[in-house]
Specification:
Blueprint (H helix, E strand, L loop, with lengths): L5 H18 L4 H13 L3 E4 L6 H11 L4 E5 L7 H4 E7 L6 E7 L6 E5 L6 H4 L3 H6 L1 E4 L2 E4 L5 E6 L12 H5 L3 E4 L5 H11 L13 H13 L4 H13 L12 H6 E3 L3 H17 L7 H12 L4 E2 L1 H6 L3 H11 L3
Parallel strand pairs: 1-8, 1-9, 2-5, 5-8
Antiparallel strand pairs: 3-4, 6-7, 10-11
Helix pairs in contact: 1-3, 2-12, 10-12, 10-13, 12-13, 13-15
Length: about 325
């Protein structure tokens, strides 16, 4: 495994942001959060209405880092074999001998766009679970390793709910971040209209390869996180649970509106996200403010609200905001 220095990592991240800016207008916060998850080795769930450049963003990222990109359009009739691949029987015309050959599916890539993942049944959604967690797939008892790095970005359309299948909690927990992409500002939308209705297309220059990204991911894990950073992430996660041994320390909004809180994987995501954010911002040590900055995309899909919250019009984002108010660094 090749290594990368802190200064080289800073230069790479800066160049990558610049390349993404050639194709993506605005959405700076979304781009920043995706890069944090990308360099931390996590996966992203991106929620937003159609036409906000979700596909363009992830495709441009794959081009800028010279990685293999595959897009999977999730539909109600999509089968697991359409994602991971299938086995076929082939016959040698010369000898008449038959053998089984595995044809690889689109999951064999470095950057995967799972478009509208909630439009397919849970059986097909689950085909990505092993790949996202273990970097491998299993077909008829045979394991196939996937190339690294592997980055899965799944999109959801929050408007149309007919014919959709909510992602199981186990599937949601595999996504490091749940990122919400909103409409651009008036000025940004004007720039979009100007840049996308002409004859010119942005030229994306690769600034890194797979080895560079893997080296960045190892460097992120080497970023120091002091005990106060670990303890703050731990307090946030444990305070999101309405029941348990620390129930007396849980803020009132959580006890009133939360059915299930975040699990240990959320704490890992908070710490890794804080380390990656510090690195991207040019700091060699993670701080509690980094944990606060990534708390919303880490926790919003891991906190399950109860009926009382739905009746009161309270969503997970509001719960996380109240949690951050109650639990200081």
């Amino acid at each position: 495994m090749s290594s990368i220095s802190f200064d080289a990592a800073q230069h790479l991240a800066s160049r990558l942001r610049a390349e993404l800016g050639r194709a993506i207008v605005g959405q700076d916060a979304v781009v920043h959060e995706i890069l944090i998850a990308f360099f931390a080795g996590g996966h992203c769930l991106l929620r937003g209405v159609p036409g906000l450049a979700k596909t363009l963003l992830i495709k441009t990222l794959a081009q800028a880092v010279h990685l293999k990109f595959n897009r999977i359009q999730f539909t109600p009739d999509l089968m697991p074999s359409d994602i991971i691949g299938t086995e076929v029987i082939e016959e040698d015309r010369g000898t008449g001998r038959r053998e089984i050959r595995f044809i690889r599916g689109p999951v064999f890539a470095n950057v995967i766009l799972a478009d509208e993942i909630n439009r397919t049944p849970p059986k097909t959604q689950a085909a990505l679970l092993e790949a996202m967690q273990e970097y491998q797939i299993t077909v008829n008892g045979v394991r196939y390793d996937l190339e690294r790095p592997l980055f899965v970005l799944a999109t959801q359309n929050p408007i149309e709910q007919e014919g959709t299948y909510p992602l199981p909690e186990a599937q949601l927990d595999r996504f490091m971040f749940n990122i919400v992409i909103d409409y651009p500002s008036a000025e940004e939308e004007r720039r979009i209209l100007t840049s996308t209705t002409g004859s010119g297309e942005p030229v994306i220059t690769p600034v890194a390869d797979a080895q560079d990204i893997e080296a960045m991911r190892h460097l992120v894990r080497d970023v120091p996180a002091a005990s106060n950073v670990i303890d703050y992430a731990l307090r946030l996660v444990r305070a999101s649970r309405p029941a348990g041994e620390a129930a007396d320390l849980v803020p009132p909004p959580v006890r009133q509106w939360v059915k299930w809180g975040a699990g240990p994987r959320a704490g890992q995501a908070l710490v890794l996200g804080a380390k990656a954010r510090a690195l991207l911002d040019g700091r060699s040590v993670a701080a509690p403010d980094d944990v606060r900055a990534v708390a919303l995309p880490v926790l919003r899909h891991r906190i399950l609200v109860n009926f009382q919250a739905e009746a009161d019009g309270i969503d997970a984002d509001e719960i996380v905001a109240r949690l951050l108010e109650a639990i200081g660094p």
